[in-house]
Amino acid sequence: MHKYIFKRLLLLIPVLLGVSFLVFSIMSFTPGDPAQLILGESAPKAQVLALREEMGLNDPFLMQYGRFVLNAVQGDFGRSYTSGREVFGEIFQRFPNTLILAVIGVIIAILIGIPVGIISATKQYSILDSTSMIAALLGVAMPNFWLGLMLILFFSVGLGWLPSGGFGDWKSLILPSITLGTGAAAIITRMTRSSMLEVIRQDYIRTARAKGVAEKKVINKHALKNALIPVITVVGLQFGYLLGGAVLTETVYSWPGVGRMMVEAIRSKDTPIVLAAVLFLATTFSVVNLFVDILYGFVDPRVKSQYK
């Protein structure tokens, strides 16, 4: 197990290098001058040129990227061009807000997706099955930003029950959490149904039923546990996606999280913030996937033998 974890952590290095190179390239070749941003639009051209030279922005692209990697390895990701603060200070200040949304969103997705998927599988081709699959298809097809806007129009503008955005009391969590959780719930529902259908057709399920074991026990004890591995995979991937994919939802609801911070940083070409945020979310996503792989061993002991 320790060797497996170590190998996975080593594989994280080329992934982060690839991500950082891609994002650095995009930010470097998009229009905009960070020096002009720092000094302001009315700053004299001579000062802007002097600051560009001081920041190393006139150096060749590969030299700039190499300097970034060297500093990053030492734990220095620079300072924000707009606020002047260390970038990880900005990220750690906002990440708890993103984490809250992602956790609540994935809980909503699990509470909806797994029970509905089980019921659909056990009542295959029924009206309930057809209805749930149509709802799941709609959930997958609906973009987060569109669903968020519709929920705001209905519950905030129309009924006035919930706030339309911002960070406040528990009510401000409801709409963004539902927006995030709906798409994930649809995917979990489809995967749970598919996995359960495959398991309940196995011989040992027929044997358990032939022995007179109660149907509820057959489903909950024998079928569900063996159908959980692909479901756990999807839940883990969705949680990682919600951490990094809350960009649109946070923007729609003016939620002060990492996603909204990234959008603001991209608009102002605040390269250090964008790079650090993307690398942080990529690392978080990879760690979540590693945790899911380790969790397999607890769900199915046969998987432990594969950790070599």
Characterise this structure.
There is one protein chain. The chain has 308 residues and is an all-alpha fold. It folds into two domains: 2-73, no CATH class; 88-306, MetI-like fold, CATH 1.10.3720.10. The protein contains 13 helices and no strands. It is found in: Cell membrane. It is a multi-pass membrane protein. InterPro entries: BPD_transp_1_N, MetI-like, MetI-like_sf, Opp2B. It holds the Pfam family BPD_transp_1.
How would you describe this structure in keywords?
mainly alpha, single chain, MetI-like fold, 308 residues, 0% strand, 2 domains, 13 helices
Structural class: mainly alpha
Label the overall shape.
elongated
Estimated share of beta-strand residues? under 5%
The helical percent reads over 70%
Protein name: ABC transporter permease subunit
Main location: membrane
Membrane topology: Multi-pass membrane protein
Organism: Psychrilyobacter piezotolerans
